[in-house]
Specification:
single chain, about 40% helix, two-stranded antiparallel sheet, binds heme C, mainly alpha
Length: about 190
């Protein structure tokens, strides 16, 4: 799936232009996929130099910048329209600077961000941070069956169930004990 997106980017003509110190694919110039990978790679370098200290090297969020791989703006971006606009204009009030990139540079940045978004999606089935995303609850406590589970409910929960009998429910899952550290815990370096 990531490949399809990249291939799409690669058919945009400016990518092949060897301007602005941009590297073309010397070895196998005809392979669209290689070219797309190269563009994303060039974008990755640009991203590393200009964006990573806010958005993280992998674009998945940093100290000050949000995760771009799950941003609605990125996921609904078509061929760079939305991303380019934000990068060009910035959002100075909100801590996102504006940048003066050539369209080739923007194209490569966009390719990189989309490839990271595709990776994030593939790795996490679209839902990052929930290792048990496909799990079904063991049972759900609702206003109808709350009496049955009363011993396990707190007063607050009971009150909520009574107050919102139509919409409030408690899904009970099996307990898992995992020692998996969150992805960020590996001491990722920022420059
Ligand atoms: C100084 C920190 C900083 C740098 C450097 C930076 N950004 Fe941002 N960026 C932000 C912040 C903060 C926001 C969120 C702004 C907001 O709340 O609207 C943002 C938002 C964005 C968004 C919009 C996300 C959304 O969901 O609306 C995109 C796309 C983006 N940045 C791309 C980039 C790219 C590409 C670069 C490098 C060329 C970059 N940023 C460099 C801080 C930064």
């Amino acid at each position: 799936m990531g490949v399809a997106i990249l291939a799409c980017q690669a058919t945009r003509p400016p990518i092949y232009a060897a301007s602005d110190g941009f590297q073309t694919n010397q070895s196998s110039g005809s392979a669209v996929q290689d070219a797309a990978a190269d563009v994303a790679k060039a974008g990755g370098e640009l991203f590393g130099q200009n964006c990573a200290f806010c958005h993280g090297r992998d674009a998945m969020g940093g100290e000050t910048g949000p995760d771009l791989t799950r941003a609605t703006l990125v996921l609904t971006d078509k061929g760079g329209d939305k991303i380019s606009e934000v990068v060009r204009d910035g959002r100075p009030q909100k801590g996102m600077p504006s940048f003066n990139f050539s369209s080739e540079q923007l194209t490569s940045l966009v390719a990189f961000i989309h490839s990271q978004a595709a990776k994030a999606k593939a790795q996490n089935g679209g839902r990052r941070g929930d290792p048990f995303a496909n799990e079904k609850p063991l049972y759900s406590v609702t206003a109808d069956n709350m009496a049955q589970h009363a011993s396990k409910l707190t007063e607050g929960t009971v009150a909520l169930l009574k107050k919102y009998p139509q919409s409030f429910r408690v899904d009970v899952y099996k307990t898992h004990r995992t020692a998996a550290a969150p992805q960020h815990a590996g001491g990722r370096r920022r420059h």
